[in-house]
Design goal:
This protein has eight helices and 15 strands. By secondary structure, it is of the alpha/beta class. It folds into two domains: about 190 residues, Purple Acid Phosphatase, chain A, domain 2 (4-Layer Sandwich); about 100 residues, no CATH class. The strands form three sheets. Strands 4-3-2-1-10-11 form a six-stranded mixed sheet. β1, α1 and β2 form a beta-alpha-beta unit. It is elongated and about 70 Å long.
Length: about 325
């Protein structure tokens, strides 16, 4: 192997077929551009033990067009019940270039796996620690969706696309390229993917307290040095008026995944008429509410007040010109 390209955690789903197709095409172009001989997929190619035929076709097309050696890690978390019972084994039939394994080892030089360790930012009760891998020059792990360097030699490469809003803090999604593999000029490069749809979290509240503003960084990670740490930007932008959040959302690209957290009822009431507009505009649009009705009344009177509130809200909601499904969701919020 002269050069290796590593990527992982694509989590192909029915709703992300177009995005995943574009990401795989970009990975294929990078492999050709840098004359990569081997690609290593760090696992969680799919989001289910039983992907649909269309989901399977997306990755099959990638393998067929790639025409390079590819090592696929079969993760226990989604696509594999055991090494023998994995949907990925079908790709070995599709191409002699495909090898499906639980983990990949190349002597003490390179180890690739799909799990977290004790030092991972999200370790999920991991039993292994970085000490177990100290003899390897490089260790690349899938499973954790945000990039993390665990010094001196371990990298969680992160997911190839924004899968959940926990990843909104990630400034970019990346792949790793090892050039001059196992030679004196060997070097690890991190390259930003351009295809993933960006993800943004917003917060709406009447509270005047300022929170960190979202930073959008369009610069690629340093591709000239070996593995290096980078700071993630704040993952949240706070707004305290409907006009401000409306102006911000209007200037964002349609190719954005948005989640709005609403912290008080008055903001929620004002934001409600905008839901249909932005649901139609953005690739993904979600919101959540985090507020309670607080009262110093006795339990009986508080219950009565809550009943009156529900009735008033239901009446007000029925008069709003919003999608029926949204009305049903909002109604459940106060049950």
């Amino acid at each position: 192997m002269n050069s290796i390209l590593l990527f992982g955690d694509l989590h192909i789903t029915q709703s992300s077929l177009k995005e995943c197709t574009l990401i795989l095409e970009e990975i294929g172009m990078l492999a050709n551009k840098y004359n990569v001989d081997t690609l290593i997929n760090l696992g969680d190619t799919f989001d289910s033990l039983k992907p649909t035929s269309v989901e399977l076709d997306v990755f099959a097309t990638f393998i067929r067009r790639l025409n390079k050696k590819i090592i696929i890690l079969a993760a226990n978390s989604h696509e594999s019940e055991s090494e023998e019972r994995s949907i990925l084994n079908h790709y070995g039939i599709l191409s002699n270039n495909v090898t499906v394994v639980k983990e990949f080892k190349d002597g003490n030089h390179l180890f690739c796996g799909h799990f977290s360790i004790k030092e991972s930012a999200n370790n999920y009760g991991a039993k292994l620690s970085k000490e177990e891998f100290k003899n390897y020059l490089y260790v690349f792990l899938g499973h954790i969706h945000s990039y993390q360097l665990i010094k001196p030699n371990i990298v969680h490469l992160g997911s190839s696309r924004y899968v959940s809003f926990d990843e909104a803090k990630d400034k970019q999604k990346i792949v790793a390229l090892i050039t001059g593999y196992d030679t004196e000029v060997e070097k690890v490069h991190f390259m930003k993917l351009k295809s993933p749809i960006p993800m943004v979290q917003l917060e709406l509240s009447k509270n005047e307290e300022k929170r960190p503003i979202l930073v959008i960084d369009n610069e690629a990670l340093d591709s000239k040095s070996s593995i290096s740490e980078g700071e993630n930007p704040p993952d949240l932008r706070q707004f305290n008026s409907i006009l401000a959040i409306n102006a911000y959302l209007d200037q964002l690209s349609q190719k954005t995944k948005i989640k709005v957290k609403i912290l008080d009822f008055e903001s929620f009431r004002q934001f409600l008429p905008l839901c249909s507009k932005y649901s139609n505009k953005f690739e993904t649009f979600k919101y959540s509410t985090e507020f309670n009705v607080i009262s110093d009344l006795t339990p009986d009177s508080a219950k009565k007040q809550m009943t009156n509130f529900k009735e008033s809200f239901t009446s007000w909601l029925s008069q709003q010109n919003v999608d029926q499904k949204i009305k049903e969701i909002l109604q459940k919020e106060i049950e």
